[in-house]
Design goal:
Blueprint: E1 12-15, E2 22-24, E3 49-54, E4 83-84, E5 91-96, E6 102-107, E7 111-115, E8 125-129, E9 134-138, E10 158-161, H1 162-170, H2 189-203, E11 208-214, E12 220-228, H3 229-240, H4 251-263, E13 288-291, E14 299-302, H5 303-306, E15 312-313, E16 330-335, H6 382-391, H7 397-400, E17 409-411
Parallel strand pairs: 1-16, 3-11, 3-16, 4-8, 5-9, 7-8, 12-15
Antiparallel strand pairs: 2-17, 5-6, 6-7, 9-10, 11-12, 13-14
Helix pairs in contact: 2-3, 4-6
């Protein structure tokens, strides 16, 4: 499902995924909730630019609780003497021996348990879970080589019902096959994202696409520069399926740097609109940008001040702007599980801190809302950067005689297989 925003000749859409949740960064130009009456990528004459940001943080290792699990079925009744109390522990960690036998460790006591509803009096103690209560768990054995016990790497846990954990550990026996890293038939968030994006690459035509990921704890890497899909398709698919999950989740910083990528930071200064076909890049805009255009707090800042962060560039990727032509739309799709971490470097000097003004009634540092929870090094800047990119004219009239704006549509990657619905992030 898509939200269509009213925009001038150039537009920018941002999509995110966690359940496919859609958040619209609406402003006066937008028509939140209005469904598009034409396909997203077919609204302009010039092939649109689409930058995909694929979350390659550790938490994308978490298992998605979906089929063959059936939430309407109660998979076990756990006796009181064997029940693991979620209020008395931190979280559950998967352990899979090299022969495929699975068990779990309770943190932080580090006690090992075989799953079971009856204590057989031998080996590890048995344990099981309250079906109706929620637990924190890491269920993918990312660490450990051949012959080793597979355990979680240093990624953030996810929340599961006790019923799901009883199914995960208890149904179809404890042995999942030699060198297994998860229960057969299940999928990680990353596997779902990769399959979805790979399928999309196979179906797109008449668009220009690029791929970005996280630069560990410091914004984005442009892994594949934006180019025509017919030239980029195989490169995109290869890179999508070879990203490794070893980064934090600097969402706002990455979107900020994607903005810089679209304005450009290499090549000729302010080359203007191009009329020649076959180009792949178009220099860099080099002048002032107008923040909050047409509003009482309108102000102008140098583009290097607003976009003071620069993304890393993959091998062979140009830092020149991919915006080539008059009336060329620009899009971003962020596939992420949406928990910002190491995401605090949006400085007040950029003019983007609390750009959306949602701290009028009071915020903590880093735009954080007192009623919300955050990761230790997280922030609440993503919506500010998104709204700024929606409003700011990235190719002012002095350069190409039209507006280049970003329209922002967000959605966050399924904790379940893609069933798109309108909702707010919990």
């Amino acid at each position: 499902m898509m939200i269509k925003f009213k925009h001038n000749c150039h537009g920018f859409f941002l999509s995110l995924f966690t359940t496919l949740v859609v958040l619209s960064s609406g402003i006066s130009h937008a028509a939140p909730g209005t469904l598009a009456d034409e396909p997203l990528f077919l609204s302009t004459v010039a092939p649109p630019n689409i930058m995909f940001l694929l979350d390659d943080s550790g938490s994308m290792s978490n298992i998605v609780p979906d089929v063959p699990f059936d939430a309407s079925v109660t998979y076990a009744t756990c006796p009181a003497g064997l029940t693991i109390d979620p209020t008395a522990i931190d979280y559950i960690d998967i352990q899979i021996e090299s022969d495929g036998d699975s068990y779990f460790m309770v943190r932080t006591s580090n006690d090992d348990y075989d799953w079971g509803t009856v204590d057989d009096g031998s080996g590890r103690d048995e344990g099981c879970f309250y079906s109706a209560l929620d637990y924190l768990a890491r269920l993918y054995g990312a660490s450990g080589g051949e012959g080793d016990t597979k355990t979680p790497s240093n990624y953030l846990w996810a929340q599961y019902t006790g019923n799901y954990l009883n199914w995960y550990f208890g149904v179809d026996g404890p042995n999942w096959g030699a060198e297994a890293r998860k229960k057969p038939g299940t999928a990680t968030r990353m596997e779902i994202a990769q399959a979805t994006l790979t399928s999309l690459m196979g179906s797109l035509n008449n668009v220009r696409v690029g791929l970005s990921s996280y630069d560990y704890i410091d914004g984005a890497v442009i892994d594949v520069g934006i180019d025509d899909i017919d030239d980029n398709r195989s490169t995109m698919i290869s890179k999508i399926n070879t990203l490794s999950l070893e980064n934090a989740t600097p969402l706002a910083e990455s979107l900020h740097e994607i903005g810089r990528y679209f304005t450009g930071f290499a090549g000729a200064s302010s080359p203007g609109n191009q009329t020649t076909s076959g180009l792949t890049s178009n220099g860099q805009y080099d002048s002032t940008l107008t923040l909050h255009p047409g509003q009482g707090n309108e102000t102008s800042l140098d583009h290097d001040t607003v976009f003071n962060r620069t993304p890393e560039l993959g091998s062979g990727v140009s830092g020149e702007s991919p915006i080539l032509h008059f009336c060329q739309s620009n899009f971003a799709m962020l596939l992420t599980d949406g928990r910002p971490q190491y995401d605090q470097d949006i400085t007040s000097s950029t003019g983007l801190g609390d750009y959306d003004g949602d701290c009028a009634s009071g915020c903590d540092d880093l735009d954080k809302k007192p009623s919300r929870g955050y990761e230790s090094l997280g922030s609440d800047y993503l919506d500010d950067v998104a709204k700024a990119l929606f409003e700011i004219d990235l190719r002012p009239i002095s350069m190409i005689l039209t507006a280049t704006k970003w329209s922002i549509m967000s959605s966050l990657i399924p904790s379940a297989l893609p069933t798109i619905r309108l909702s707010m992030i919990p």
